[in-house]
Amino acid sequence: MSLGKNTDGGAGRPAPGRVEDVRRGNLVRILASLAEPRTDPDVRPTRADLASRTGLTKASVSSLVAELVDAGLVAESGAARDGERGRPGVGLELSTCRGVVGMEINVDYISAGLLDLGGTLRIHRTLESGNRGKSPQSVMALLAGLVADVAAEASAAGIEILGGGLAVPGLVDTGSGTVSSAPNLKWHGVVLELHGLLPGAPQGTLLHNEANCAALAELWYGHGVDFQDYLFVSGEVGVGGGLVIGSRLFAGPRGQAGEVGHVVVDPSGPDCSCGGRGCLETFAGQEAIFAEAGIPDGTASARLEQLTALLEAGNAAAISAVSRAGHYLGIAAASTARLMDLSAVVLGGHFTRMGPWIAPAVVRSLADYAPGVVGPASVAISELGQSAALLGAAGSALRSVLAAPQGLRPGP
Length: 412
Ligand SMILES: [Zn+2]
Fold this sequence. Notes:
The chain is an alpha/beta fold. It folds into 3 domains: 2-94, Orthogonal Bundle (Arc Repressor Mutant, subunit A), CATH 1.10.10; 98-213 and 390-403, ATPase, nucleotide binding domain (Nucleotidyltransferase, domain 5); 223-383, 2-Layer Sandwich (Nucleotidyltransferase, domain 5), CATH 3.30.420. Helices cover 40% and strands 20% of the residues. It has 12 helices and 15 strands. It has helices spanning 2-9, 16-35, 47-54, 58-70, 136-156, 210-221, 281-284, 286-293, 300-312, 316-340, 355-369, 388-403; strands at residues 74-77, 91-94, 98-105, 109-116, 121-128, 160-168, 171-173, 178-182, 187-191, 205-209, 230-235, 239-245, 248-250, 344-349, 379-381. A 5-stranded mixed beta sheet has the order 5-4-3-6-10. Strands 13-12-11-14-15 form a 5-stranded mixed beta sheet, with helices on both faces. Strand 8 (178-182) and strand 9 form a beta hairpin. Helix 2 (16-35) packs across helix 4 (58-70) and helix 10 packs across helix 11. The structure holds zinc ion. Residues 262, 272, 274, 276, 279, 281 line the site of zinc ion (ZN).
């Protein structure tokens, strides 16, 4: 690669700014290489491995790694072959003493968790909270308290927080930190005070759409190893979705693609929170399923427990409600798969709890409405559960840190 040659070969005489750009680019390549999944989790790459992976010279890798170790982003690990630290035989990994915070505001809970740079979720806290119609300021104050608890715990464990990501179930503008529309929270055009969440974190906090975050978490930590092109559908109070194409999230020009919950599956169906009617959400959102199954009012988590118990007991009304949701979900997925040339569907959020009962109905609809496009083996249930959106928000922050590391000394 030309980056390595420019740095190591000395061909030509690039301007000082260009030298610094190249050095930064090489630091990012080292970090990206260390972030790659390891075939054997116990075997960490050495400086020599990094040199062969990146095409940089060993001397160059040693200098870059020294800078990353000084900045606290990379740590040496494991015994050196000659028994001395710092020799080429020492394994390297992304530091577990630096981390990022993933946060989520949903309709009936808030959560926060700490992901270390190595990609392990070290702390995870969830608080039930009926947020629908609550003022954004009061929900953000509650979240700030939860995040402060996580930060205190991280600090006690010797982990420094570098940045964070917040997932919200609605259309958002990441640049300005604005929730354009979150119908299930009844928030519209709300600018969130994100800088108050992680005071002192160099990368700050970025706002994301919850379903996009969950789709990314699936890509990075879930079924992304099995499928390259899929529709991720997340059942919550609303129904969110994300499109993964070529192992990348396709968020659309305004970050609003993949809103499968508001794809119309019955033009004469019920009114929807988005202002339209007959959307998938009116059949597969929590309210619709609970009402159809005859589950009385209560907290969402209690009602979900009740539904799961009824499904396990073979209750006909519960099974029929979930099958109906799956039928319509399959219709929306069939159209989406045709439109976007997708070959798989991953079900997340509350659909994971209904997996054995909802998946067959989804498979049937896909076979009826888009035969041969998404086979039964390509309908998968997420294993990330309720932490998916938080993991995706944290994973995005982690990638920002690795793509633009801050706090590094300027190059020579
Ligand atoms: Zn709708």
